[in-house]
Amino acid sequence: MVLHSLLRREPRGLLRRPPAAPTAEAVRRELRLPKGRTARISGGRLRIDGGWNARWIAARLIADLPAAVRVEQYGEEIVIAGAPSRAHDRMVEAVADRIAPAAKEREWAVRRDTTVLLPSGGAYVRPDLVCVRPGSVWQGDVVLGADLAVAVEVAAAPDAADDRELKRRFYATAGVSCYVLLDLERGDAVLYDIPCEGDYHHQTDAPLGTALPLPFDAVLDTAIPEAPYRPGM
């Protein structure tokens, strides 16, 4: 009877209980990882050494965590970001509205909640906003980097560092034509374009609140909507 019960038992989950809050630290406290796997907080995000079963661990966490908690995979490392602030979401919503006319002219689809894959597999991210070219081989909420005309990230405390470095290199490696970084923490807007050999060869900087020239005969208004940005808002 005991053996029969063990055989029927569901595999244990990776969380002891649902996190008390949608934050990286709250997720860390509830983690129950397989033997030999480790987790740490760095740069405001939770980083898990997933090892050979990183893909399985990431898939389980995506299923178990609230949708607002972002799970991404970079090879054997899984990176978890807590739910964004309202100031962050306001900026993303504003950018979606502002870029929509240029996207419509070119028949690009403006999307949020999209997963971007590396062609080689083993890594994926979830940008704040993307413009997907027509004729994408992948349909729905999963695309290849080469399908994207633009990827947009809004960087805000406490986890802005990845958007500045890790995401930039990922998008260049994946073949995303241009990457727009709107840095609420530093007050900068940056356009990266011409991807080659794992990075972008061209960079254009502008203060937030000014027009950022885009490489397809358009400009992006980078004004911060509504209330001024404050960390944690």
Main features:
single chain; 233 residues; alpha+beta; tt1808, chain A; 2 domains; seven-stranded mixed sheet; six-stranded mixed sheet; 6 helices; 25% helix; 32% strand; globular; disordered N terminus; endonuclease activity; Putative restriction endonuclease; endonuclease
Q: What this model shows, in words?
A:
Residues 1-11 have low confidence and may be disordered. The strands form three sheets. This protein has a seven-stranded mixed sheet, with helices on both faces. The protein has a six-stranded mixed sheet with strand order 5-8-10-11-12-13. The chain folds into two domains: 2-81, no CATH class; 86-221, tt1808, chain A. The radius of gyration is 19 Å and the shape is globular. The protein has 233 residues and is of the alpha+beta class. The protein has six helices and 15 strands. Helices cover 25% and strands 32% of the residues. The protein has helices at residues 2-8, 24-30, 54-64, 86-105, 161-164, 166-174; strands at residues 39-42, 45-49, 70-74, 77-81, 109-111, 115-117, 123-125, 129-132, 142-144, 148-155, 178-183, 188-196, 199-207, 211-214, 218-221. The N and C termini lie far apart (54 Å).
